[in-house]
Amino acid sequence: MKKMILSLAAGCMLTSAYGQQISQKEVARIINTLAADDMQGRQSGTPSIDKAAAFISNEFRKAGLAPLSGEQNYLQSFSRYGLHTVATTLTVNGVAQNWPVLTIGASRHVQLHRDTAQCLEIKVTNADELRAVLGKRKSMQKNIVAWLAPSLDAYLANLEGSISSRMYATEQEVPADTATRQMVLILEREPLKADDNWSVDQTRSIHAQQFTNVVGMIKGAAKPDEYVIYSGHYDHLGILPPVDGDSIANGADDDASGTTAVIMLADYYKKKRPARSLIFVAFTAEEMGGYGSAYFSQQMDPAKVVAMFNIEMIGKESKFGKNSAFITGFEKSDFGTILQKNLSGSAFRFYPDPYPEQNLFYRSDNANLAKLGVPAHTISTTQIDKDKYYHTVKDEVSTLDVKNITDIIKAIAVSSGTIVNGTSTPTRITPVSQ
What we know:
By secondary structure, the protein is α/β, with parallel strands linked by helices.
């Protein structure tokens, strides 16, 4: 590996051995563990994400991190509220069928049958057709019943945990049942004939679902009440319809790569004496709507957060080549300029986000604090416009460049040095009106 030549600018906290402190072997170990098949895709609300949280907690423990102030351990738990199915009765020609039924929307009680007025039935045979049907949910002119082919079985559990019912911070915020039109997805385990009579009766009620961020910290030696945050999300999509026999959405790039960076940076900085307090957080439920970062942000005083390094999808070479990454919202503060200055003399470059049309700045976990004025940015390399593995079962470690990931983590460690030691403070972002 070609040794990176870096300036020893005052306050960069560099040592001649910094490269050995972030080893490619350790990066490979962590990312392979997080993206392994036995993690079952780390979907929020499933046992698999609890297993991932336990692994990350153990890594924070080995690094010697302290729990966040007010927490007993590294697990920052909270609840969100949504609708959960209580009872379902589906009959075909008067015979009860144990077929999966999922209601999309706020309806608490669904009663539909073949003769229901204004009821549109749609046969759905593949994922593209399912996406098209789901796209109709905000403009429905009549009730929709979508009969899904058996091959789409894995989609239903995924949808129930994400699109079927938005989650709310309190029970009182869950909207009243005012839906006049309903969308119901039914898995058709046996072929339904045109003259078959069917009926569905489903009851749903409000329930609480627990989520867990994993958070550790290093208390600052000189400025303990000023915080620098390193973050990534550790959840992913879980189980998807199989492709070539594989149904596990491993989420290696999205975002085991970023979570690996957070763990490695925790270990790196524990060996230093940072002036500012450092918080390392693996967020849950990013894929469901950023619930983990939203809760975390509500526990922080934004005035005390100096900067946030959110790290997402750094597993592949960026469009600018190796030794490069881009920063979302580059123009909104001088965060990126500080980072690049601290890498003076090196081959590594940080670039502005090359995909402004994707609105990535407000699509990741940095957004909740950025809206409050914190210079909170996401560092990434993903070529989002042409990544064929994004949100598929093919997002596996074998598609990643582990050496490149390691080099990016090293660059983040060194480039954040003056922010960590208190000699640089990024300008604030203009807050977004709530």
